[in-house]
Amino acid sequence: xxxxxxxxxxxxxxxxxxxxxxxxxxxxxxxxxxxxxxxxxxxxxxxxxxxxxxxxxxxxxxxxxxxxxxxxxxxxxxxxxxxxxxxxxxxxxxxxxxxxxxxxxxxxxxxxxxxxxxxxxxxxxxxxxxxxxxxxxxxxxxxxxxxxxxxxxxxxxxxxxxx
Length: 163
Prior knowledge:
Elements: H1 2-15, H2 35-44, H3 55-60, E1 68-71, E2 75-79, E3 87-93, H4 108-124, E4 131-134, E5 150-154
Antiparallel strand pairs: 1-2, 2-3, 3-5, 4-5
């Protein structure tokens, strides 16, 4: 029954343009499509230390494609490739910051800018009834890409508590 409902909802979201053909919206206990596992592997591989470009760095330099919704000199906004809600996009700084727990006072203006952009994009995406902002931090926070990013999720009633 749940699978039938999920497929029906996904078809409805696709019809509204929130999901592209072939995309699905999944919410699975224990870490959506293995995000917890990805986070553990990223932490074990030392990706937080940097050195190698992240997938987000590659999206910024256009060597990896993405559905870009907005860009300015400080940030980039694009749709999540594995949406967890009918509307799910990411707001990332162009300057790589590995995780929110590593920011300092010098990052205050940029962090405020990311929040303002997230709010404006949520409005542009029609999320007048509300949405959720999520920042995952580190292995226990299920951060799988060590480039600070804000998830903006909406378009349906979200449950509480998360995770």
